[in-house]
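Give me the fold.
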Amino acid sequence: MDVLTKNFSLYGKGFLGTVELTVYASAVALVLGFLMAAFRVSPVGSFRALGTVWVNVLRNTPLTLLFFAVLLGLPRFGLVLPFKLFAVIALGCYTSAFICEALRSGINTVPTGQGEAARSLGMTFSQTLSAVVLPQAFRSVIPPVGSTLIALAKNSAIAGAFSVTELLGTYKTLSELGYDIIWTFIWIAVGYLIITLTISAVFNLMEKYWGVAR
């Protein structure tokens, strides 16, 4: 317990750093994921191509490599931002590819007749997608989206290697102070467990009220 009680503020800063990364990157991932999912099912060929390239490139790129590309590459083009913001961009873009595919799979579960009926009433593609297809698809994608955001929370640990304050990075300071590495990692694991269980609980509630009955 000494590791936690004597370094509670250090653990607290790391915990809050991980929470912030998770929340902000989740927002980026959901927005971009929704946009790319719309592109993937768009009747416009160039949009479909853009969505396909986005998903295939990001899903097949190691996250650590993406961190290097964003944190070290963007400043070369004159875009200088705090490292935490770079980490949010890297995490959000990477996760958006998985969110996109989860949403697209949900869209594919909606009968094609629903969209055809909407178009026969004169609704545009965007109106059909937002008012008819997505509300139905949303119910079936709650579990996979929740699992993806849980993975995002755990992936945020990579940010610590790039001078971003987060939970896993606290082990470096504690190790230098001579604390038992086992207990150091046990309390780090507890912090991640709190975050992931909270996300899981939120999505379980969402699935209970809006999910597809099985």
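The longest helix spans residues 8-40.
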